[in-house]
Amino acid sequence: MKDLRGTTAIVTGASRGIGVFIAKALAEEGANLSLTARSADELEKVRIEIESMGVTAIATVGDIAVAEDRARLLARTEAELGPVDILVNNAGIDIVRHFHEAPESDFVDTLRINLEAPMLLTRAVVPGMLERDRGHVVNISSGGGKVGVPGEAAYCASKHGLVGFTNALRAEYERTNVNFSVVCPGLVSDVGMAHRWEQAGVKAPLIAGSSTPEKVAAVTVGCIKRNRSEVLVNTPPVRPLIVLANIAPGITPFLLRKLGYSGTFERIMDKNLT
User: Of 66, 134, 205, 208, which is the most buried if we count CB atoms within 10 A?
Assistant: First the structure.
């Protein structure tokens, strides 16, 4: 889908963080935006900013983990903007706790929002995309979707799930013009949980580095325009480490400890920075 002008794009989790930057990047390409999130005031501010860029934008407050809210989002999008050409499953939560201490609700909520909801929202738009033989779904996973880290069992499970989900759909629909991509950002500067960790005095290992939210947004748009399957948005030193961890998973705990990742997540859990 090389030309995005006049397309209809849904971006979930669009009131803050990476979602805002993804929405802006799509607007710069001429896409009309259907934005959704649970934060009404913040979402409306983003909608106004997007419309100032010369495209149409609507904002639907809701929880993508709730079936009625998903249905309302899709119905309004199609009624006001037209059929969905692009879906960016960006909304997600990240709760860092020791596995044996975490309440059951942590696991249920994380999997419902981070994995189940994107799957069901994708299931709702794909039939129309197939009928029109046009469409693209981008799932925003994480570095935690490639390597498991301490304190993030549910989060990593959900993000690994998004990677597998995306790869399965690419295999199933490879002979159509409906395409699927997954973006796996590492630490992102200025926005998101890692930024809040730094504000609380917990610094990530130096080797981890960070990517800007603008970079993540540019990669997301690039996935749509060039039909890229899976992209890691990490600093150069991190990429070979992720590849190594996937080739030889047995050494992952050792690598995480020696490089300082395990210590960072231990400090996050000690400070209860969820």
Answer: 208
**Per-residue tokens: 270:** 């000690």
Domain ranges for the chain: 8-192+209-238
Summarize pLDDT for 105-131 with one digit per residue, the tens: 999 999 999 999 999 999 999 999 999
Question: 24, 43, 65, 155: which one is catalytic?
Answer: 155
261 belongs to the catalytic site: no
Query: Residue type for 2, please?
Result: K
Q: In angstroms, how far is CA 2 from the centroid of its own chain?
A: 21
CA distance 97 to 149: 11
pLDDT tier for residue 239 given thresholds of 50, 70 and 90? confident
Please name the residue ranges forming H helices in the chain: 18-28, 40-51, 67-80, 104-111, 117-132, 153-172, 192-199, 213-226, 238-247, 252-258, 261-271
What is the CATH code for 8-192+209-238?
Answer: 3.40.50.720
* C-beta of residue 235 within 8 angstroms of C-beta of residue 39: no
Give residues with Cβ within 8 angstroms of 245, minimum separation 6: 146, 147, 251, 252, 255
Query: Which residue has tokens 């981070």?
Result: 114
Q: Write b or e for each residue in 200-211: b if 16 or more Cβ atoms lie within 10 A of its Cβ, otherwise e.
A: eebebbeebebb
The upper half-sphere exposure of residue 25, i.e. CA atoms within 13 Å in the direction of its Cβ, equals 21
Which tens digit of pLDDT belongs to each residue from 225-234?
999 999 999 8
Q: Give the chain's mean pLDDT.
A: 92
Higher pLDDT: 207 or 31? It is: 31
Query: Which residues partner with 87 through β-bridges?
Result: 10, 137
Whether this prediction's pTM lies above 0.85 is answered by yes
